[in-house]
Specification:
Pfam families: Melibiase_2, Melibiase_C
Signal peptide: 1-17
Strand order of the largest sheet: 9-8-7-6-5-4-3-10
Catalytic activity: Hydrolysis of terminal, non-reducing alpha-D-galactose residues in alpha-D-galactosides, including galactose oligosaccharides, galactomannans and galactolipids
Low-confidence stretches: 1-16
Domain Alpha galactosidase C-terminal: 346-421
Number of helices: 9
CATH topology of the largest domain: TIM Barrel
CATH class of the largest domain: Alpha Beta
Structural class: alpha/beta
Bound molecules: 2-acetamido-2-deoxy-beta-D-glucopyranose
InterPro entries: Aldolase_TIM, GH, Glyco_hydro_27, Glyco_hydro_27/36_CS, Glyco_hydro_b, Melibiase_C
CATH architecture of the largest domain: Alpha-Beta Barrel
CATH superfamily of the largest domain: Aldolase class I
Helix content: 10-25%
């Protein structure tokens, strides 16, 4: 099951994403999705309430804009027999998706919706394979701004859709490698390109962001930029530290595919959920932000404590994530705790990145289970030149002054320090 959420994009060749008419998808999407908070139990009231909370908490003013309906929004028994459209569940969405969209748009926000590149969604509702044109047309008419396209039961027996086994059964979602390992020719790619093409065909009516939720299958980082605005790099996240570090480790090794219009998606945020400590929440958000991930909140905002809300509202991390001039993320600049190159419990701990705002970013993580010292040595950081630098703490906003050679911090287990380096001194 899934958490897939939304977005779209388009393109011409597999290397370059189609640049949309109004630059939709140029930066990582910021928003909220219903799955991690409500699962299948979604309805118009919760969606509109989430939009209202994004507005009233100040998250909207910071750039959060997509409000995404995940799985379970439609009539489960089937499509409309005449129009072949998916039918919004009249009990869950009494105003229709169009009526819900109107309420979201009235806040100045955007509405996202969920489908799947298969015969049914993860929760067993009608999905889009074979109906891409009909669905894209409906979504555009309803006022939908973003699609989160899952991958489940990805074939139609006895049909010619890419991926059906010769005996009519459904294949494993993990396609076999295509000839020459050219994953851009895989059946997974073909399934998603069908929706991409349908969305491009309606973009004069409505530009719809395209998020792929293919769980990192089929080497998506090698072709995702030709198909969508973002693509999942892994299976689903959950609100455990082990899962967060495993996904962070994976994504940290695949960041070359991140740039304007096309972003790796390490899945939605769990900030506010489960048993994470405040340090773990903070590290999760900071790592996702500096990897230029879509930042899709997945919690009930009406009960989120201010301690957690303030994490989601860190203006410096949002600014780094949304830099209008630099599309590349931060990168690890040296080994982490275990000194390895691949360790799901110990993702890279030393990170740096450039901004167009006159400052560079440095992040230090303590992935150990006990408190530990982490030291930023200026001469090791590729962006920095010079012996002394002006440093600010991103969490507290505190000016740490002019620091010579290196800066050490004592970090609690699983905590993170983030610094703005604002110049030499
Ligand atoms: C993805 O495509 C866009 C638009 O063509 C381009 O600006 C960007 O650099 C591409 N990303 C990568 C990683 O090449
Ligand atoms: C919040 O919503 C109101 C409409 O209800 C809108 O006028 C306002 O601009 C929104 N706030 C922000 C920060 O966009
Ligand atoms: C479509 O038609 C079938 C057969 O008449 C019927 O059982 C089904 O309920 C109809 N579906 C919808 C969504 O109206
Ligand atoms: C949504 O569509 C329905 C059916 O076409 C229509 O009756 C209703 O007025 C629409 N609602 C809005 C808010 O446009
Ligand atoms: C893709 O699906 C087709 C059937 O539609 C099948 O013949 C082909 O082997 C599949 N290709 C790969 C690489 O799995
Ligand atoms: C989190 O995900 C991992 C990997 O899929 C799984 O092994 C683990 O059981 C999950 N934990 C929870 C609490 O869902
Ligand atoms: C949180 O802790 C409780 C009690 O130990 C446990 O039942 C629950 O599964 C945990 N939740 C997660 C997401 O790990
Ligand atoms: C990491 O490498 C350093 C220097 O080579 C070494 O002193 C340290 O013990 C290593 N740490 C771990 C956890 O392997
Ligand atoms: C840290 O704790 C987790 C479980 O809480 C455990 O799986 C892991 O092995 C521990 N790591 C170290 C290095 O002790
Ligand atoms: C993180 O930690 C708290 C526990 O203090 C947990 O309840 C919360 O949901 C998690 N999220 C954030 C952002 O703190």
């Amino acid at each position: 099951m899934l958490s897939c959420t939304a977005t779209v994009a388009l393109l011409l060749t597999s290397a370059n994403a189609l640049v949309r008419p109004d630059e939709v998808g140029r930066l990582p999407a910021l928003g909220w999705n219903s799955w991690n908070a409500y699962g299948c139990d979604v309805d118009e009231t919760k969606i509109v309430e989430a939009a209202s909370n994004i507005n009233s908490t100040g998250l909207q003013a910071l750039g959060y804009e997509y409000v995404n309906i995940d799985d379970c929004w439609s009539v489960q028994s089937g499509r409309d027999n005449v129009t072949h459209r998916i039918i919004p569940d009249p009990e869950k969405f009494p105003s229709g998706i169009n009526g819900t969209a109107k309420q979201i748009h009235d806040f100045g926000l955007k509405l996202g919706i969920y489908s799947s590149a298969g015969t049914e969604t993860c929760a067993g509702y009608p999905a889009s394979i074979g109906y891409e044109d009909i669905d894209a047309q409906a979504f555009a008419e309803w006022g939908v701004d973003s699609i989160w396209d899952d991958e489940y039961n990805a074939c139609v027996p006895d049909s010619d859709f890419p991926g059906v086994n010769p005996d009519g059964t459904c294949p494993d979602l993990e396609d076999p490698a295509p000839p020459g390992y050219d994953w851009a020719t895989s059946n997974t790619t073909k399934r998603y390109n069908r929706m991409r093409d349908a969305l491009v065909a309606v973009q004069d009516t409505r530009v719809i962001l395209f998020s792929l939720c293919e769980w990192g299958n089929a080497d998506v980082v090698s072709w995702g930029n030709g198909t969508g605005n973002s693509w999942r790099v892994s299976g689903d996240i959950n609100a455990t530290w082990d899962r967060i570090t495993a996904i962070a480790n994976l994504n940290a090794h695949e960041l070359d595919s991140v740039d304007f219009f096309g972003f790796n998606d390490p899945d939605m945020l769990e900030v506010g959920n489960g048993n994470l400590t405040i340090e773990e929440n903070r590290s999760h958000y900071a790592l996702w932000a500096i990897m230029k991930s879509p930042l899709i909140i997945g919690t009930d905002l009406s009960t989120l404590p201010d301690s957690h809300l303030s994490i989601l509202k860190n203006a410096d991390l949002i600014a780094f994530n949304q830099d209008p001039v630099i599309g590349k993320p931060a990168f690890p600049y040296k080994d982490g705790y275990a000194n390895g190159t691949w360790n799901p419990q110990h993702p890279p701990e030393y990170w740096s990145g450039s901004t167009s705002y006159g400052w560079d970013l440095v992040l230090l993580l303590n992935s150990q289970n006990v408190s530990a010292t982490r030291t930023a040595v200026w001469s090791e950081i590729p962006q920095l030149h010079g012996k002394a630098h002006k440093v600010e703490d991103v969490w507290t906003g505190k000016d740490l002054g002019c620091i010579k050679d290196e800066y050490s911090v004592e970090l609690q287990a699983h905590d993170v320090a983030v610094f703005k380096i604002t110049g030499t001194c």
